Amino acid sequence: MREQPVETLTEGEALAELARLAQALAAANRAYHTLDAPEISDAEYDALKQRNAAIEARFPGLKRGDSPSDQVGGAVAEGFGKVQHRVRMLSLENAFAAEEVADFDDRVRRFLNSPGALAYTAEPKIDGLSLSLRYEGGILVQAATRGDGEVGENVTENARTIADIPQRLSGEVLQVLEVRGEVYMSHADFAALNARQAASGDKTFANPRNAAAGSLRQLDARITAARPLRFFAYSWGDHSAPLAATQFDAIQRLHALGFQTNPLTVLCDGPEAMLAHYSLIEAQRATLGYDIDGVVYKVNDLALQARLGFRSSTPRWALAHKFPAQLAWTELLGIDIQVGRTGALSPVARLKPVTVGGVVVSNATLHNEDYIAGRDSRGQPIRAGKDIRIGDLVQVYRAGDVIPKVADVDLSRRKDASQPYVFPTECPECGSPAHREEGDSVRRCTGGLICPAQAVERLKHFVSRGAFDIEGLGAKQVEMFFRDAILPVRTPAEIFTLAARDAANPLQKLRNREGFGDVSAAKLFAAIEARRTIALDRLLFSLGIRHVGEVAAGLLARHYTTWEAFEAAVTKATPGTAEWGELTSINGVGEVMAQSLVDAFQNPAERAAIDALAAQLSIQPVQSRGAVDSPVAGKTVVFTGTLEKMTRAEAKARAEALGAKVAGSVSAKTDLLVAGPGAGSKAKDAERLGVEIIDEDAWLRLIGA
Question: What is the DSSP string of 540-560?
Answer without folding.
Answer: HHHT--TT--HHHHHHHHHHH
